[in-house]
Design goal:
It is built from 16 helices and no strands. It starts with 7 loop residues before the first helix and ends with a helix. The chain folds into two domains: about 10-190, Up-down Bundle (Growth Hormone, Chain: A); about 210-405, Up-down Bundle (Growth Hormone, Chain: A), CATH 1.20.1250. Helices cover about 80% and strands about 0% of the residues. Helix 1 (about 10-30) runs antiparallel to helix 8 (about 120-135) and helix 11 (about 210-245) runs antiparallel to helix 14.
């Protein structure tokens, strides 16, 4: 019996199961891509290569993580999102086994590239599935984003424990088993959608004319670039900023704990924004978050001592909040049939911006320290805010008419 033929209770249960798998997959996706940067420390003697050479393999995996978002999103739209997620689970699991079994440097490089390729499937495929499946879209997307951030947060610690207790290969074998078992249950419990119909418009969606859709999507792509640069600049440099500004007062362990506490503000902000989109007009919320992000980065440029932690908390909270609100608003104005490809391009821009961000941070830091890094981060945040305002201005007319129509009582 298909979902369309199922009773309301069965259909709701199937929807919840699907979202549960997608949340779990988001956690695993961010976890698996961060395993190798932790285990690489102990591989120099095994493969007789320098730390720099081995770390380059991780760079290749991260590059594939962004580059392959485009073909994965296109293929999911043309074929099947559910089946692409099955490929994600099984392909990533098998690739992790290949990493653990790699007998030489070349095989290790190919296996790690495969991890990047298969893990690239999740964002352009899983996020549109969450959007199309969710009923309370804001809260569902916020929790999904939090699951991914938890994966980022625990990856290094869990990998270090597994490596210490069981060896570095187990740091890949154990997640591989989890991926493959999860894939088996996913195929068993989530129905095939190879013949799926195009998702229909919901109350969370707004119909724009074709020219407006193209304009808004183009602006969101430029927004993705600026948001990706700000996100990477702050998340990459946060521990070093804390160490440089207040590290002389605290030990390295305390500095690390403070940095973790600040990152937790980002997770809390994602949950909050999931509720906020139900109260504040989403296109207005985009601007509010953008201005708070700009305020946080500017404050961070001048803050020292304990006020630095408040500035960091505001900046990181708004950085994570903009990820959730941008995903929500982009879905609101994107025709359902286009979502896989549009989100593929968005995540391609965001993930591939990490490389230029790291390169730029290094150059700016060498030229003028963190003052110069934060100054240019603030400039990019200002461009982001202006871009957000332009999107809001473009859609405000349509949103206004939609609100007035909703207020007219039915006869």
């Amino acid at each position: 019996m298909s979902i369309a033929q199922a009773s309301p209770a069965d259909a709701d249960r199937a929807r919840r199961v699907s979202i549960g798998f997608l949340n779990w997959a988001h956690f695993l996706d961010h976890y698996v891509i961060l395993i190798f940067p932790t285990v690489v420390i102990g591989l120099e003697a095994i493969y007789r290569r320098s730390y720099g050479d081995l770390l380059l393999l991780s760079t290749a995996a991260f590059t594939a993580f962004g580059m392959f978002a485009l073909p994965c999103g296109w293929l999911a739209d043309k074929w099947s999102r559910r089946n692409m997620m099955a490929v994600y689970f099984f392909g990533t699991g098998i690739s992790c086994i290949a990493v653990g079994l790699a007998p030489d440097f070349t095989t290790l490089a190919i296996a790690l590239l495969a991890v990047g390729v298969f893990s690239a499937i999740y964002h352009p495929v899983g996020i549109p599935m969450v959007i199309d499946t969710a009923i309370v879209r804001g809260r569902t997307m916020a929790f999904n984003g939090l699951c991914g951030n938890i994966g980022v947060s625990v990856a290094a610690g869990c990998t270090a424990i597994i490596t210490t207790q069981f060896g570095w290969q187990s740091a890949f074998f154990i997640p591989a088993a989890i991926f493959i078992v999860s894939g088996g249950f996913y195929v068993l419990y989530v129905p095939n959608d190879a013949q799926r119909q195009v998702p229909k418009m919901t109350e969370n969606d707004v119909a724009l004319d074709r020219r407006m859709v193209v304009a808004v999507i183009a602006l969101f792509m430029t927004l993705a670039l600026s948001s990706g640069l700000v996100f990477n600049a702050l998340t990459i440099t946060l521990p070093k900023i804390v160490d440089a500004r207040i590290g002389q007062v605290f030990s390295l362990a305390v500095v690390g704990s403070l940095a973790t506490a600040v990152f937790l503000c980002g997770g809390a902000a994602q949950l909050f924004i999931g509720r906020a989109v139900e109260i504040v007009a989403p296109h207005v919320l985009v601007v509010i978050v953008a201005l708070l992000q700009l305020l946080g980065v500017v404050w961070l440029t001048y803050a020292t001592g304990w006020t630095l932690l408040l500035a960091l908390a505001l900046a990181i909270a708004s950085v994570y909040a903009q990820v959730t609100v941008n995903d929500f608003v982009l879905a609101r104005y994107t025709p359902p049939a286009w979502r896989g490809r549009i989100y593929a391009f968005r995540f391609f821009i965001i993930f591939t911006s990490a490389g230029p961000a790291v390169w730029g941070i290094g150059k700016l830091y060498d030229a003028g320290g963190f003052d110069l890094v934060l100054f240019w981060t603030a400039v990019i945040a200002a461009i982001y805010a202006a871009n957000s305002m332009l999107i809001t201005w473009l859609v405000s007319g349509v949103e206004g008419r939609r609100s007035r129509a909703a207020e007219v009582p039915a006869e």
